Amino acid sequence: MYRRFLLVMTLMLALILSACGQSTGQTDSTGSPAASSAASPDASMMPEGSASPAASTGAATGGEPMAQAPEGSALRAIQDRGKLIAGVKYDVPLFGFLNPTTNKVEGFDVEIAREIAKKIFGNPDAIEFKEAISKNRIPYLTDGTVDIVVSTMTANAERAEQIDFSDTYYVAGQSLLVKKGSDVQNIDGVKGKVVATVKGSTSEKNIREKAPEATVELYDTYADAVQALQSGRADAVTTDDIILYGFQSQNKDQLEVVGGQFTKEPYAIGIKKGSTELTEVVNTTLREIKDSGRWGEIYKQFIPEQEVPAVPPQDWREVK
C-alpha cells in the first residue's frame, strides 16, 4: 500500500513539473505584451515623414515593394535603409510648405516624392523629408544628404553637368510679385527698382539678363524675399509664377502677381550622377502618374484655383 502511494505521488509530481515546463516554453517563444511593445519603435519618435519598419514593407497600404536592386546601387542603398530621403522646400506654398498647424510638409513636390516612395516600397509614407533651399539642393545630392531633390528646381544644361535629372514633372515661368497698386506691372517696369530673389536660383540669372538696370537683392529663402517686399526693402520679388501665386494666395489683400511669364522653367527631379536604377524608377513613376491621371489629381489637390494644364513633356530640353 505504501509503495503504491509513493508511485502515485511520483507520477503526480512528474505531471506537475511537465505542465510547468510547457507553460514556461510558451512564454519564452511568444514574449510578453510588454516585451513586444518594447521591441516596436514608438511612432512618435520616428523622424519627420519616415515610416515604421512595418509600413516600409508595404503592409500599411497593402502595396508590394519592388524587387531588390543590384548590390552597390543607389537604389539598393535606399531599399536597405527602408525609406527614401527627399529634399523639398519648406517655405513655398502649394509646392513644399511646412504647415505650422500639423508640423507636416505638404505640397505638389511633396506628393510627387511620396509617389516615388510608394513605387519603391509600396508605401508613400516610407519617406523622410529634409529642407532643401535653392543654394544647397545640388550639394545635398552630391554629398549624399538626400537621395532625390523635388524642390521647384529648373532643369538646365549647367546643372546637368553636376547632377542627373528626371523627366519633367512641371513647367512654370518666371514672373513678378508686387504690392497691390505698385507701378511695377511687367519686366520693363523694374528698371531702377530693387528686385528680390533667392541665392543659387535660375531666377537670379534670368532677372540679371532680362533687367540689367534693376538692383538685385539676394535672400536665402523665398519667404525672406517676400518679407523684404512687404517691409519696403524691395519693389518686387521674382521667381517662378506658381511659387509667387502661393504667396499671393496667403496675402490676397496686399500682393499680386503681374507681368505674365518671361521665361519657361521645366521642373525636374534632381538625382546624384550615375544613379541609373534610381533614375529609371523615378521616371517610371512620373510616366505612370501622368498616364493614369494621378498627376492631374495632385495638381487639383494643391492648386485648386487654377485649371489643370497639359501634362508636361518628358524631356526638359523640349520646353521652350
Helical proportion, percent range: 25-40%
In what range is the share of β-strand residues? 15-25%
H-E string: HHHHEEEEHEHEHEEEHEHEHEEHH
CATH architect. name of the largest domain? 3-Layer(aba) Sandwich
What class would the helix/strand composition place it in?
A: alpha/beta
Write out the strand line-up for the largest beta sheet, numbering strands in chain order: 5-1-6-13-7
Regions with little confidence, pLDDT below 50 for 5+ residues: 1-8, 10-62
> Can you identify the CATH class of the largest domain?
Alpha Beta
Count of alpha/pi helices: 12
**Overall pLDDT metric:** 84
The CATH superfamily name of the largest domain is Periplasmic binding protein-like II
Q: Could you name the CATH topology of the largest domain?
A: D-Maltodextrin-Binding Protein, domain 2
Cα gyration radius (Å)? 28 Å
Termini gap? 107 Å
Largest sheet: 5 strands, mixed
Estimate the global geometry from the Cα principal axes.
Answer: globular
Number of strands: 13
Count of domain modules:
2
